[in-house]
Structure formats: structure tokens, C-alpha cells
Amino acid sequence: MTRDHAALAAELHAAVSHEPIDLARAALIIARLEYPDLDPAPSLKKLDELGARAADAVSVVSKAPMSVRLAAIAEQMYEHDGFAGNRAHYDDFRNSCLNVVLERRLGIPITLALVFMEVSRRAGIETQGVSFPGHFLVRGSDAADEPLVIDPFDHGRPLGELDLRDLLARMVDPDAPYSSDLLKPCTPRQMLARMLNNLKRTYVELRSFQQAYAATDLTLTVDPTLLMELRDRGLLAYHLDDYSSALRDLEQFVKLYAWTDEEKQDRRTLWTHVKNLRRRIASLN
Description:
By secondary structure, this protein is α+β, with helices and mostly antiparallel strands. The chain has helices spanning 3-16, 23-30, 40-59, 66-80, 98-104, 109-122, 161-171, 188-205, 209-222, 227-239, 243-256, 264-284, and strands spanning 84-85, 106-107, 128-130, 137-141, 147-151, 157-159. A 4-stranded antiparallel sheet has the order 3-4-5-6.
């Protein structure tokens, strides 16, 4: 890890160590993977302005059911303020950087969800992220505490059970079992980790292993319990010829991971990597 990435990890750690976690500020720290000199103030000001306009829209329907108030926020955000899902360039890394999403008003489900959540909070309505398989969603609750689910990638369209079943079939598998448990709110840490995983995947596809390593390190900063990220960080360190870091992470992963019988071959493969790394490091001393 470079000195810059270490400083970024320390800043993110500080940001997520205080409850409630300020999602917008944490997301803007993550955006500094691409924009090291990013000043968060202009982006936070944009969110305040968007929130103020959403509050005006909600005030007109303040006595209406929650579904109507959420629809008012969606109409303001998508129809008037011009946000949209970036369908043409979904894998563009800028879709995961909150500052650029606010500037271009284009994003992927999770960053548009973050904007919707921050805007609605400023308008006096609490919403939560839903880590739905393959497609991040947003939910509010009605007077009976029933979830009201919207798709932030599709202009805030409300989704009923049939819509959700269809979405699951398209994003995962036609035979994937649907359950209301899939609509449980995720924590801010889980949301930030999923944002970082999107960035890591994009960087790996671009073979930008240094940035992928930094993204994985930030993921472990957000949630140190994500053991698969520990494995990935070790493998990325190996790609970067940082054999000591690779050995440390892979040894720890092999020790901590709860291996199943079906994963015996994976364990043997990873253990072979560990032994090869030990020999390589010994030969350098």
C-alpha cells in the first residue's frame, strides 16, 4: 500500500468510526481513489441544494401517504433535476464516484440510491438501502411499516412483489428463490463495501491492479470481517510483486476461513500459493 492509500484508509476509518455514519462524506473519501485532491464541499453543497428542492416538492404533499411523498422526491430528482441511470456506459468507473455522479447526474443503482437517500433525508424522509442481488434498491416504510421499494436506476419507479421477482430472475437466475428477506435494509458499512467492490471489479477488468488493491484495502477498512476481501487483497499484492503483503494476507485467510468439504481443492491451491510465497521470500533474504 502506498503512503497516499494508507492516508486514505486512515481517513475512511475515521469517517466510519462515528455513528451515524455520514454516507455522503464516506463516499467522497472513496472517490479520492480517482480524484486525490477532491474537495468534498462542492458535492455536499449540491446535495443540500437537491435536498432543498425535494423538501419543497414534499411540502406540497406533506399530508399524503409515504408512497406519494417518495414519488414527489423521485419526480423532483429524476424529472426536474435530471438524474438517470447510465445504461450506455454502465461499467464506467465514474459511475461509482459520488462527485462525478452529482456533476453528470448519471450513475449506477448504488450511487443513485445514495443520492436518493441523502436527498430524501434532507427533505425530512428517512430511506434505506437494500442490497438486492445484482441490483441495489431503496426502501421507505408506510404507516404500517410495510416496505415501499423503489428502483433508483429506473427513475425511482416503485416495485411490487411481481416486479421484484422479475428483477431477481433477470439479475440472478429464473429459478432463484424470492423472499421478503431480500428487502432487509443494509447497513451503511455494507453499502460502502458494495460500492468499493464495484470499483475493485472495474479496476481488475482494466488490469489496474494497484487501484484494485487500494479499493480492496478500503473495503477491509470499512468491514474487516469480509474474509474474501482479505484473500483478494493478498492475490492483488501478489500481482503487484508485494510478496510479503501477499503472504501475510493469504496465510491469514487460509487460517480464518471456514473451509467446506467442497472447497478442499481451493484450499490446496491457495496453500500452494502460500508455500511458493514463503520460498520466494526466503530466497530474497
